[in-house]
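Morning F.,

Quick status update on the modeling queue. The single chain you submitted on Monday has been processed. Sequence for confirmation:
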Amino acid sequence: MENRFENASDEVKELVENVIDNSFRELRNAKILVLFDCKKRISKGKMVMGRMQKTNDLLRHLTLDNTMDEDGYDYILYLDKMIITNIQEEDQIRIIRHELQHAEVDYDSNKPYKLRDHEISDFYDEIEFNSDDARWGVRIASIGHDMYEQEADRD
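Structure tokens below.
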């Protein structure tokens, strides 16, 4: 049986780190596990290209060995493998930036890492960042649907 998830490639992990360094400095100390989702995922009729999850106590415990400290990971960033490995870096960054927008840091809390929902159907910061391609999500989702259809045709 094929696993649904696998560790992201070093190249994608490095890209995530670069996006954090350039745009999300508050996340520099957050421990983020980056995984590929190897199966097509649809939610509310839309293709899921990425997803950000805050870890709970169980996930933190299960990831202790991976982080080399007593806390485990703070977040898990899931990226659709089919899509993220077959699009240009600019579009990879769009997906990663969007998902990292869901991470929120509250340094006054004893559990500083939180999740936030969309402000609108996107994030205000992302509208400006993606002003050159406002419908990037629809475009990439369409590419993803096509790739999954081609894969199904080969099987």
